Every structure is written in C-alpha cells, then in structure tokens.
# Entry
Amino acid sequence: GAVVSQHPSWVICKSGTSVKIECRSLDFQATTMFWYRQFPKQSLMLMATSNEGSKATYEQGVEKDKFLINHASLTLSTLTVTSAHPEDSSFYICSATFGTGGNQPQHFGDGTRLSIL
Amino acid sequence: KQEVTQIPAALSVPEGENLVLNCSFTDSAIYNLQWFRQDPGKGLTSLLLIQSSQREQTSGRLNASLDKSSGRSTLYIAASQPGDSATYLCAVRGTYKYIFGTGTRLKVLA
# Structure
C-alpha cells in the first residue's frame, strides 16, 4: 500500500527555534499533501493544503508566515514552524493523496511530536 | 460548514463484545468517508474507505456502513479484542479536504 514517511518523529527545542518537518510519499506521486495539527485528546485540524509547485492554501486562523509550507516535488512537502514558542507544541501529521479527485484516499504519516521549551 | 460528530466519545467494554461506533455529518455532499485508528502518540491507520456511491465496506472483523442521505456512518467491530483499544476517527471528504470527527476512545478489557 501507499507509504508516507514523516520525519522527525519527535522534536524538542528551545523557544525561538525554527523547526522543519518533512513529509515524503515513498511509493507514489503525491499531487496534494495536507498538514494537520492535533492537540492532546482532540481531533485533527487541517492547517493547510499544498499542491506540488504552487502555494499552499491555509485554513482560516492559520498564520502562513508562522507555518511555512513548501511542496517542491511530487514526493516531498515540508512544514517549517518559524520562531516556535511553547504554544506551538503539538502533534503534527501530514497526509498525501494522488490526483485531485475527491474520491482519492489520504495516506497519513506517523506524525511529529513537537515540544517547545 | 461541515461538522462531524462521533458518539460515544469514550467506550469501555469487556473482550468479546460486538461494538458499534457512530459518526454523523451535517453536509451530505461528500466524496467519501474514511475510518481511522489512532494509537496513543501515533499517526493514523486507515481502516476502511467508503465512497459516496457505496453503502458499506468490510475488512476482517470490521464493517463500516454509510447512509449519506441521513449523514451517518457506523463502524461495527465484531468480537472485540484488547488489541482493538485505540481512538477511532471518522473523516468525511468534501471538495478538497477531509473534516475529522471528534473521535471515540475505545478500551477493550481482557
């Protein structure tokens, strides 16, 4: 089946640091990638949608200058949390889908737990 | 605006019971509905995907149904096992994105 690899799985860093999270589709070309955020015991909230070669579409309330998304190739998207602060601590999960049709399933990475001290 | 709700929020049952988890959504204009499992601190594992034209999907002890007109889906787990303990999430696919439900935390007692 389709495999999505997310790296790193765990990050602990000091306040003010910028952190980059990678999301790779290993065995298929991901036309669209999604980035989600999950707070403890809550569901996933979509942050942004990125299509290869174009600017990401951010959900309402998500700061695009804070959460930089790059989708430079069909197999890689990155999320950079700039100048991270403790309130940015969360579980971030990416997903990828092939094609733009609405009936395509999403394949999820294993997530990145970000802890800002 | 699509809203997805899951009932119950938490469930604790003895091993061997058959379970029904519920998912409801407010906008029936969906492409598909997907059920996921999430273990603590982990990512999502896809369990079943039901396209909007389908009524149900089955995989092993799992059966998911979809009634798009009433905005409901159920996940049926037969003969539950302690290894089934996890959070179960449903998600509906709209025009371009998934909206996730609030999840049901399941604990199966040995």
